[in-house]
Amino acid sequence: RGALGNPCIFKDALALWKGSPLPQPPSIQERIEMMLRHFDLLIGEKGEYAAVREMRKHAGWYLKGIPGSAAIRRELNSIVKAEALIEMICRIKR
Predict the structure, then answer these.
(1) 10 Å Cβ neighbour count for 31?
(2) In angstroms, rounded to a whole number, what is the distance separating the alpha carbons of residues 29 and 35?
(3) pLDDT in tens, 10-44
(4) Which of 4, 33, 59, 78 has the fewest CB atoms within 10 Å of its CB?
(5) Is 42:33 a contact under the CB 8 Å cutoff?
(6) Angle of CA points 66, 52, 42, to nearest 5°
(7) What is the Cα–Cα distance from 15 to 25, expressed in whole angstroms?
(8) What is the DSSP letter of 60?
(9) Secondary element (H or E) of residue 47
């Protein structure tokens, strides 16, 4: 469960195991890129209909801790088309 919305947890765990310093947490831009990649993989695996609905859940986890993310999550939860979800994720950059 710790990896939901935070796939970088595995890099952190590896660094701790090796006794290395923890890597920097991912920037907002890096999180957005991870979300878009994750969504693209979901579409390829499950098709648009299921991927959009599943990604709305995952996007909430990726957005955790980002200022203003509650409003973004509310808007994301009403999206039903892949194109609209991608647009919404890309607007987070601004």
Answers:
(1) 23
(2) 10
(3) 888 898 999 999 988 888 898 899 999 999 999 99
(4) 78
(5) no
(6) 95
(7) 13
(8) H
(9) none
Q: Buried b vs exposed e over 56-90: b needs ≥16 C-beta within 10 Å? A: bebbbebbeeeeebeebbeebeebeebeebbebbe
- For residue 4 the two structure tokens come to 């939901």
| pTM, 2 dp | 0.81
pLDDT at residue 50 is higher than 90: yes
Mean predicted confidence (pLDDT) in 90-94: 77
73's CB contacts (< 8 A; 6+ apart) are 59, 60, 63
The letter for the amino acid at 49 is Y
- Please list the helix, strand and coil fractions of the chain in percent, rounded to the nearest 5, in that order: 65, 0, 35
| Residue whose C-alpha is closest to residue 7's, from 44, 37, 46, 48 | 37
Can you tell me whether residue 8 is helix, strand or coil?
coil
- Closest listed residue to residue 48, CA positions, set 4, 75, 93, 86: 86
Placement of tokens 């006794």 in the chain: 19
